[in-house]
Specification:
alpha/beta, Rossmann fold, 6 helices, globular
Length: about 220
Amino acid sequence: MRNVLQVDSGELVSIPAGNVVLEGNLAIPDNARGVVLFAHGSGSSRYSSRNRFVAKQLNRGGLATLLMDLLSAEEEAVDLRTAELRFDISLLAQRLVSAIRWLRDNPDTSRFPVGIFGSSTGGGAALVAAAAEPDYVKAVVSRGGRPDLAGAALAQVEAPTLLIVGGYDAQVIELNREAFEELRCEKTIEIVPGATHLFEEPGALEEVSKLARNWFALHFA
């Protein structure tokens, strides 16, 4: 049964990914014209308040969203002790690819173009996944991301890519500019004035949401 808009949580779904099953929250507004898969950053989860805020704004703009955990509960417990899995870009990208294929096969979402919204290390994983699934991923947005972590995959990305960075996040701006030069797809970089890495300043996340919504809407059309 199709999930009607529930922006606060969405419908709980289970996504097989290799030898684990990951949990996610899928929200599909009426007349949705695409679905955005969220790739959260290091040490975070689908309960990230920032990503949930952006997802809510996308829902209101007519876009479905899938917020999912990229690690199983057991893996998260290991990562809390070692912090090693959150930087395993290959593993995170594989999990995103599993989610993309799940969206393709799910009757409620199979008709939708897919976009990926990545944050922090999730930005790098999003680009690796987009390069691996060029027929399905139609747009990528990175918020305060580490696209440099995508490495050689940057030159293979076909999906139009928007990099959003806070104006006060000097080190990440430089890393994004270096990655931007490696991208061969349609691309734009947006610097949000007065914003730091987490976009906690008044109005910063609203600006991120607007930029992301417009980017996905343009490339889903």
